[in-house]
Amino acid sequence: MTKPGIFEITHRDPGTSARRGRLSTAHGVVDTPVFMPVGTQATVKGLTPDEVAGEGFRVVLGNTYHLSERPGSDVIEKCGGLHRFMGWPHAILTDSGGFQVFSLSGLRRITDLGVEFQSHVDGGSRFLGPIEAMDIQRKLGSDIAMAFDECPPYPCTREYACQAVERTLAWAVKCANQPRADGQLLFGIVQGGIYEDLRRRCGRELVDLGFDGYAVGGVSVGEPEEALIRGLECGIAELPEDRPRYLMGVGLLPQMVEAVARGVDMFDCVMPTRYARNGTAFTSEGRYPVKAAIYGRDERPLEEGCTCYTCLRFSRAYIRHLLNVNEMLGARLLTLHNLHRYAVSMDEIREAIENGTFGEYRKEFTGRYCDIRLEHETAMNQTEGTSG
Amino acid sequence: MTKPGIFEITHRDPGTSARRGRLSTAHGVVDTPVFMPVGTQATVKGLTPDEVAGEGFRVVLGNTYHLSERPGSDVIEKCGGLHRFMGWPHAILTDSGGFQVFSLSGLRRITDLGVEFQSHVDGGSRFLGPIEAMDIQRKLGSDIAMAFDECPPYPCTREYACQAVERTLAWAVKCANQPRADGQLLFGIVQGGIYEDLRRRCGRELVDLGFDGYAVGGVSVGEPEEALIRGLECGIAELPEDRPRYLMGVGLLPQMVEAVARGVDMFDCVMPTRYARNGTAFTSEGRYPVKAAIYGRDERPLEEGCTCYTCLRFSRAYIRHLLNVNEMLGARLLTLHNLHRYAVSMDEIREAIENGTFGEYRKEFTGRYCDIRLEHETAMNQTEGTSG
């Protein structure tokens, strides 16, 4: 087995910064660019590990904060670590909990040691800082741990962003000095909001500390698309070529294509799974609401030509029915389809980089992909009937 | 293919009325005694057809009333019938909707033509009678249709029960005269509440009409266990030996063993699936609440020695966690286990009848099975902790 942390770049796109790589972890090699399905609470919602791996995924996300609340990191450690607990033999990246503490929790008090906040589960007081976050991630035994960071909201003042960068850097030092699980990698997170010089400075200082990989955080927190791209560009500007780059919380397929063109290797996002539960299907051309009345008698699969488990067996009419009557099989089948769509798109991206055709792929993709397909616009505006 | 409706009894238990048979339907042969998982809304909740068939089931239930509400029988007919709509290639029995109309709906007015009632979906006025119920079942294309009946509550007066029998018989005549789907069988339903002579009379008159099979209805509607057994005994007393007998809405494994001993061939019940969603695991010895705190770090499978998908891969601790955080994978994995347990129990019952050892099996089963296992009683009484 290759040593965890080895990151081999096998192909570079001649026209953009896109690269095709292989990241070794303690639980196997991850081909990049990669999309990581989100399994916040030790499960990709609705699916078994077999099904997730069956779609070709070799790394999923877990969440430090959620898992420390329930079932608790001690329970997972006692049960042999997160891989064994959830029955997932491949790689796991754990988010540090920073983003959740700042976005989910109620009243909070930030000090240099960390954050005191209210649990979203029972309202009780909790404390999470770099030492605690690393301790939990060690117990979970993830393959890639994330440094505990302060993720400022959008918009925020320069002063706030600056202070968040200071804390993120100070916490990154502490995280780097904490014990880790065997072969566990540690990624630093670049913050800095929309402020280019702050992003660059944060990147430079993290690189000086030397991490196994680098993430760009706080770029998918409600800002407009161009600010997202700008934040990304500044965020990766100072990062080394030879280390994996992870754009946190992104995203939408067209955003990922643009980010790959700028040199990003890793992505995660709740979108394909969360939107599935809300009844939105992703296709190679965009997305559409399966619950819309026009699909009530539509015997076609969710996406024509798709070879996923769902599309080979079930019609839009059936899945619409399941969603309309809140049958969990509906969310499950749609989640499977959406993840398949993401997996196929990442396959296409990797193959295009290998073949030196990523530029064409990007252009072709941008031409065909429409966030909401025009042909489905009627559907979007239709009111749901009770039946039919 | 054998003609739908052929019911071959291959073995009889020497000491009881238990029999081992094979019922031919338009979608394959069903081995009896059989348990039919409930798929009210065109899905066994949480599972794919592959998974249900993978546990050995060859017949599931659909519900005429629910499916006529959503997505509507016209939609299902347009999509090629219920088998194709839900992707289930094996047999389907459709409940007539009588039980649901009487138990689920609000204000209702009963006439000789049927029942005017309020939809549980939108509160709108609906009408369901023998003609409507048969028409819907014809469109659904189920293999076994049930005659539309009046199911009185428990307790009810003799007068009420008598009137319900009259209506059930009059409606049975109408149902028998309605057109059906190709190869669709029709079962009559014996009502009569706890009144032995009414049950017997209802049975006799249905037999005179001549159905493909006979069901005993209204015996699992809240009455005490001995009344259930007594209702069953009177209900089947007048039924012919050579036709399948179906005990509706039962049940619990020990109740099914006792019913088989009295000559019942078919069962359905929401228990293994509904209880799974509430966190109850069934084992060969009883049932227990997986959410109980004592299982928080329990690395054993739900049932030791069990070979189901769930037990081969996941621990009680993991499933408890999923249930506690409302992850749908928890309900799904537990449903799979519970149905496996039911499938294995029915296999054992059929094998015991084949081997002439059903009497011993019944005794052994009654000895080992305890509705709530003593060793789990502590668990039942424990208060849930937030974690751990």
What does this 3D model show about the protein?
2 copies of one chain form a homodimer. Chain A folds into 2 domains: about 260 residues, Queuine tRNA-ribosyltransferase-like (TIM Barrel, Alpha-Beta Barrel), CATH 3.20.20.105; about 110 residues, no CATH class. Chain A is built from 16 helices and 17 strands. The first copy, chain A, has an 8-stranded parallel beta sheet. A 3-stranded antiparallel beta sheet of chain A has the order 1-2-3. In chain A, strands 7-8-9 form a 3-stranded antiparallel beta sheet. In chain A, helix 6 packs across helix 7 and helix 10 runs antiparallel to helix 15. The first copy, chain A, is globular. Chain A starts with 6 loop residues before the first strand and ends in a 7-residue tail after the last helix. Chains A and B meet through helix 3, helix 13 and helix 14 of A and helix 3, helix 13 and helix 14 of B.
